[in-house]
Amino acid sequence: MARRQLRDLRAIVTGASSGIGRELTLQLIAAGAKVIATARREDRLQDLASAAAAPERLIVIAGDVCDAELRTQLVQTAAEKFGGLDLLINNAGIGALGPFADGSPERLRKVMEVNFFAPVELTREALPLLRQGNQPAICNVSSILAHRAVPAKSEYCASKFAIHGFSDALRAELTSDGIDVILVSPSTTESEFSSAVIEKSGRQPAKGKGAMTSAAVARAAIKAVQTGKHEVILSLGGKGLVWLDRLAPTLSDWLVARFGFDR
Ligand SMILES: NC(=O)c1ccc[n+]([C@@H]2O[C@H](COP(=O)([O-])OP(=O)(O)OC[C@H]3O[C@@H](n4cnc5c(N)ncnc54)[C@H](OP(=O)(O)O)[C@@H]3O)[C@@H](O)[C@H]2O)c1
């Protein structure tokens, strides 16, 4: 597969104020890319700009990715300031913890808005510009839970399964345009994700064992962008879970029901 150059690559990264998105931005800038980085917390985006190896190649725009005007602004800024767009990384995400029965329609809608509708609509907005880009790509940061769902994270799993299905369909649709659609599925990662969950109620899920660093996840995602690899499952445990679920779904169901809750 063609190797994509990072030097002068024009990118948008969502969820850039912490964790994986911050690392993606720093690593892309260090490799010579130009990045528009977005998230809601403006002070964190300013920190990011201070930490970037070449701040002149970074534009930060604060806003909520669920806001259609912000999404339009991101794409327009890429057109005006970079003269185009080669890479969209949909990374912003949130979680909620607790059994579905203890949740609410609002919790479900919020998780789906941030993790599914917002990245899908940003993709729609960016497609015309991406079509004119150099070796364009869309990279969706999903989760191992897009492949095997677990209890007490039903809304999150549903949102990540949805982005997985969307990515597979879009990849096929965009093959003739030469646009890669890359799905990156991390397992537990050190970031602010657990502290930022929008709700914790009722019985809690089992805690993941071991965690990758956000920097390692970002490195793997960027490698997939460079090589055009379409699907990346990052941890050995994650790969094991996916294969177990494919080969022995009944056993997999039993195991997550038995061990999926905190005890
Ligand atoms: N950490 C894990 O264990 C793990 C495992 C698998 C997959 N993932 C996925 O990895 C991605 C990145 O998560 P992370 O681990 O790096 O967590 P994180 O440190 O909490 O980062 C999440 C990012 O999303 C942004 N964000 C959240 N809601 C937003 C909104 N409405 N509008 C704009 N930005 C928003 C946050 O910024 P603001 O709060 O400043 O808006 C932050 O920059 C997510 O899609 C997550 O589902 C994480």
TrEMBL record:
SUPFAM superfamilies: NAD(P)-binding Rossmann-fold domains
Sequence ranges assigned to domain Ketoreductase in this UniProt record: 9-185
EC numbers: 1.-.-.-
EC category: oxidoreductase
Entry annotated with the keyword Oxidoreductase: yes
Keywords carried by this UniProt record: Oxidoreductase
A Pfam entry, by short name: adh_short
GO molecular function, one term: oxidoreductase activity
InterPro entries given in the database record: KR_dom, NAD(P)-bd_dom_sf, Sc_DH/Rdtase_CS, SDR_fam
Recorded family membership: Belongs to the short-chain dehydrogenases/reductases (SDR) family.
PANTHER family: DEHYDROGENASE/REDUCTASE SDR FAMILY MEMBER 7B, DEHYDROGENASE_REDUCTASE SDR FAMILY MEMBER 7B
Official protein name in the record: Putative oxidoreductase
Organism in which the protein naturally occurs: Blastopirellula retiformator
